[in-house]
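fyi for ur records
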Amino acid sequence: MKFVDELEIKVVSGHGGTGWVSFRREAMVARGGPDGGDGGKGGDIIFQTSPNSNTLIDFRDRKTYSAENGHPGAKQNRSGADGQPLVLKVPRGTLIKLKESQQVIADLTDHQEIVLLKGGRGGKGNTFFKNSVNQAPENAQPGEEGQELELILELKLIADVGIIGFPNAGKSTLISRISAAKPKIADYPFTTLTPQLGVVRMDDETSFVVADIPGLIPGAHLGVGLGIQFLKHIERTRVFVHLIDVSGMSGQDPWDSYQEINHELKMYDETYQGKEGFHPLSSRQQIVVFNKIETLSSEDLEKVQNKFAQKTEIQPMSISAVTGKNLKELLFVLKNKLSAEANQKA
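which gave:
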């Protein structure tokens, strides 16, 4: 399925039904009075999160969404039926913004349902206007108009763990080994062109969601490469797995790779700080992981580890996503990090 994470739509709530003008016309009933009923209420526009969706693709081919209008009143004081509401189902993590001002008016981060636009009120029939002075009113109200908005829907994935790193760091291989996700894997940059979500199940009671975010490169915060198109998707992740290729085949030094990725996170924060819905990236908890250790001898791996240790006190984990070496240890570290964070918030 094609991944769609931002688009524009127009939503229109239902017009209220018109009130009715009529008079009783019954045999043997003298001086029949007014009996026009009220119009029905227009349908609301409702947004609802769907657990079965992770893309906005269902909105791609249609630009305007309208709820049903209220039905007109009828004789014998019968009220018109209310218009059916229109329920628009979106993925969790969807921001709803006004197109003109970019103001965020809803942030659907959980299992939620919101009434975004109310339908118009139905008009009163002529029965409503009868009084001691006017026994036979011949007027009724038109229904109230519905409301309309031009919106931007923007999806930010909700995951517990975000896997970040340069292209070909092994992110797709890692998520395919620890979850049921099946991303495309090949030996060239930007194999992953869309974020991939996978569920890691530790046991019957413990699971967490992992997102494989497309590779970052210098200048990503300015839109270089895949750029900010996917940087925004890691705003909501709780912990980062910072994956670093130590095979040497990429031609990048592990320390330089670590520094450059973190620089992009910092620059993204500086660029978008203060905007509605923004969550900083550079201060997010990271687990630094050396990958592709199957390509190195134990002596060469120790040299890489020592060189990294000279620059920082961080002690990276070492894994092989291909062979599965140390993956269980990584998952237990992630489980403990997430549990500790949840306890701090409780």
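The CA atoms of residues 62 and 310 lie 56 Å apart. thats all i got for now
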